[in-house]
Specification:
Bound molecules: adenosine-5'-diphosphate
Largest sheet: 8 strands, mixed
Number of strands: 13
Strand content: 15-25%
Distance between the termini: 32 Å
Order of helices and strands: EEEEEHEEHHEHHHEEEHHHHHEHHHEH
Oligomer: single chain
Radius of gyration: 21 Å
Shape: globular
Length: 403
């Protein structure tokens, strides 16, 4: 059976999933895996559709020294042991820059253009591009598709897309891009099926994972995001501070004399829940800790979520529904309950029993704003995009041949 390989590559791990293409074009998840500990303690792990273990093995450090090597090992395992040779590969690429409002087929020219955005996402973009470059070099005939986390937000109005800085910088690419777009696009596509009564309305979607943001949806399109130029802005996250006065960064650079790369590392890895609590970046640990610093970090997360929801409600000029998704949003009834309390002034009233069960609809019948929990699936979104781009390019190739 034909399959699509979805690749999500980071600095120390490569996550991958295989989707089988059914006769009617539907996609069935066949397996998921990851190679982590790249450059330290490499390990390949994979599970089947039912969660059964298919592989769990360690590798010597020198055999998987970088992201490209990790994908090579995963590819060899898929080919030799699972007899899987994918029809195409879909990649998550965090930054598509100002030009890309949809997924695109990969070629050398695209990679060169996307490398320009490395400065805008230094901790993600190079690792996203590494497996693309490696496949282009080693398997040039294998179709690849780049799917961008920024693409879904590209239709924002200028007032949402700009900072109050001279236009020249905007033209250079200093814009409010917004991220988690593949997750929001998946939610926007899923809502008409699971909650048709609200799908066309004004909705705030809260993607609360180790990275966290909110998106204002109107008629299924993104009109505003809490994230901006980079994935540092907006809500506090596991290790990132979220919204912070640029003056704090200046203070770190000047008064504290920190080097720019140290400031970057600090902002991406040492702040957020981890920095505030001094305990952990993991919400589960904070919720079970009796340390007052953990409680404060949770209070801060909830308070800021409420503030940003207020901002998005203003962008939408009112809201018709609120949706929780991602690790914390899908699994933590405690955080949902506390954020819902913050939204009481908007007319949100949670149904505690439904919330505890992680039901689709977790608000009371009389709640002015209905609240939903919708699991996200960015990998499926990438697989669907990859298949569509593949079909479109085959169709175009046939048409060109015929004319
Ligand atoms: P990412 O994909 O950005 O790495 P996820 O969406 O998987 O993140 O979310 C991971 C986060 O979800 C973890 O940091 C953890 O704090 C949180 N999480 C997962 N399950 C729960 C739970 N039951 N209660 C609270 N937090 C949870």
């Amino acid at each position: 059976m034909d399959t699509i390989l979805v690749v999500n590559a980071g600095s120390s791990s490569v996550k991958f999933q295989i989707f089988a293409i059914e006769g009617d074009g539907a996609l069935r998840r066949q397996l998921k895996g990851q190679v982590d500990g790249i450059g330290s303690r490499p390990r390949l792990r994979a599970t089947g559709a039912d969660g059964d273990t298919l592989a769990d093995r360690a590798y010597p450090i020198e055999s998987i020294a970088d992201v490209a090597a990790a994908l090579t090992v995963a590819g060899a395992w898929l080919r030799d042991e699972r007899r899987i040779t994918p029809l195409a590969v879909g990649h998550r690429v965090v930054h598509g820059g100002p030009d890309h409002d949809r997924p695109v087929p990969v070629d050398h020219g695209l990679v060169a253009r996307l490398e320009r955005y490395t400065a805008l996402a230094p901790l993600h973009q190079p690792y996203n591009l590494a497996p693309i470059k490696s496949l282009l070099a080693n398997l040039p005939a294998l179709p690849q598709v780049a799917c961008f986390d920024t693409a879904f937000h590209r239709g924002h109005k200028d007032v949402a897309d700009q900072y109050a800085i001279p236009h020249q910088l905007y033209d250079e690419g200093v814009r409010r891009y917004g991220f988690h777009g593949l997750s929001y696009e998946y939610i926007a596509r899923t809502l008409p099926k699971v909650a048709p009564e609200i799908a066309a309305g004004r909705i705030i979607v809260a993607h609360l994972g180790s990275g966290a943001s909110m998106c204002a949806l109107q008629g299924g399109r993104s009109v505003e995001s809490t994230m901006g130029f980079t994935a540092l802005d907006g809500l506090p996250m596991g290790t990132r501070p979220g919204q912070i006065d640029a003056g704090v960064v200046l203070y770190l650079l000047t008064t504290k004399g920190m080097r720019p790369d140290a400031v970057q590392d600090f902002l991406y890895r040492e702040c957020g829940l981890k920095g505030l609590s001094g305990i952990s970046n993991d919400m589960r640990e904070l919720l079970t800790s009796s340390d007052p610093r953990a409680a404060f970090a949770v209070d801060y997360f909830v308070y800021r979520a409420g503030l940003h929801a207020g901002m998005l409600a203003a962008a939408l000029q009112g809201i018709d529904a609120f949706v929780f998704t991602a690790g914390i949003g899908e699994n933590s009834s405690a955080i949902r309950e506390r954020i819902a309390e913050q939204l009481g002034w908007l007319g949100v009233a949670l149904d505690r029993a439904e919330n505890a069960k992680h039901s689709l609809k977790i608000s009371q019948t009389g709640s002015r704003i209905p609240v939903y929990v919708v699991p996200t699936d960015e990998e499926r979104m990438i697989a669907e995009h990859t298949l569509s781009v593949l079909w479109a390019s085959r169709f175009n190739a046939k048409r060109e041949k015929a004319s």
